[in-house]
Amino acid sequence: MAIIYNATLTPDKPTLLGTWLDGRSWAGEGTDQILGAYRFDDPEGQVGVEVFLLRRGDKLLHVPLTYRSAPLPGHEEHLVGTLEHSVLGPRWAYDGTEDEVALACFRRALTGEQQQAELEIWEAGMFLGKRPQQVLISTESGAEDGDGSTEGGRLLLPHVLDEEPQGKRRLRARWEDQEMVVAALT
Question: Residue 136: which domain range?
Answer without folding.
Answer: 2-185
